[in-house]
Amino acid sequence: MPSLLGYLLLTLLGLAILLAGGDLLVRGAAGLSRRLGISPTVIGLTVVAFGTSAPELAVNVAAALRAGEISFGNIVGSNLANIGLGIGLAALVRPLVIRSVVVRREIPMMLLATAAVLAAALDPWLTGGPALYSRSEGLLFLLIFLVFIYYNLLEIFLNRKNGLAAQAAAEAPRALPVPLALLFFFLGLAGLVGGSEITVRYAVLLSEGLGVPKAFIGFTLIALGTSLPEIATSLVAVYRGETDLLVGNIVGSNIFNFLFILGITACIRPVPVPAQGFSDLAATTFLSVGLLAAAFDRRIKRYEGALFLVFYLTYLGYKVLYLP
């Protein structure tokens, strides 16, 4: 059985695989967007967001089949980490420039998804029902998600109609060939999923071996572990200057988590809302509104990234120290 040093080395190996996977995914996605005439934001909101949300989907389906309560904490904790760590750390590395369409449509869509999830959790006060997401509410989330996908597909069509494809064709000689871009994309996706699995598994074993409280393991490592693909992709994207891809990935992943993954999970088996879940949703809503406010001038500055990071770490400390 590996020692604590072995668990530490395997955790670091998982992180290295994550970073390599994020690098390949960003290269492949950026190459595809240039070759196919699709904006990096749309690629980030759809393909990359879906890919980096794969760990959350896997964890939640497994939890639903076992009737575990990990589903809610995983989704909400991941969305908190995506903004607090993903956007926060990336903006500290380099101020983020954001396309106006993200401010006008995509971040408000994320707020709509957050509001829908928050409203559905208020059943005990609104209808006197149990605090859980029912199958009918799961179906409603999936319907809203289909509207989100429809508008992104419509933007792809309009981009091509308005000549973005021709502009991309002019840049094509500098872009990766489509087969190579696809290879990079899927290799990167595999690296993200595999790296997050290795990192979470051995980080949990390391924490247990060190005697870290279970509350810390559950709230931080599971949610953080499934968010590692988004965070790794964000840091690689900002390093490469692909800030459109970065913001699209974070916003798209949060929409995927709340509407698609929670919707699928609730359809399999109703998802209970734990007693502390309302404070989690309130914190997520606060960060989401903060992201819209920070992005209003189409730029997220370093100090704003620092505020996201400080809020996340403060709330995390509050959860670990004061909540059961």
From TrEMBL:
It comes from the Bacteria. One of its GO terms (molecular function) is calcium channel activity. It is found in: Membrane. Gene3D superfamilies: NCX, central ion-binding region. This is Calcium/sodium antiporter. GO terms for biological process: intracellular calcium ion homeostasis. The keyword Transmembrane helix applies. PANTHER family: INNER MEMBRANE PROTEIN YRBG (PTHR10846:SF8), SODIUM/POTASSIUM/CALCIUM EXCHANGER (PTHR10846). The keyword Membrane applies. Residues 8-153, 181-319 form the Sodium/calcium exchanger membrane region domain. The chain crosses the membrane at residues 6-26, 38-55, 75-97, 109-126, 138-154, 175-195, 215-239, 246-271, 277-296, 303-321. Keywords: Membrane, Transmembrane, Transmembrane helix. Its main location: membrane. It holds the Pfam family Na_Ca_ex. It is a multi-pass membrane protein. GO terms for cellular component: plasma membrane.
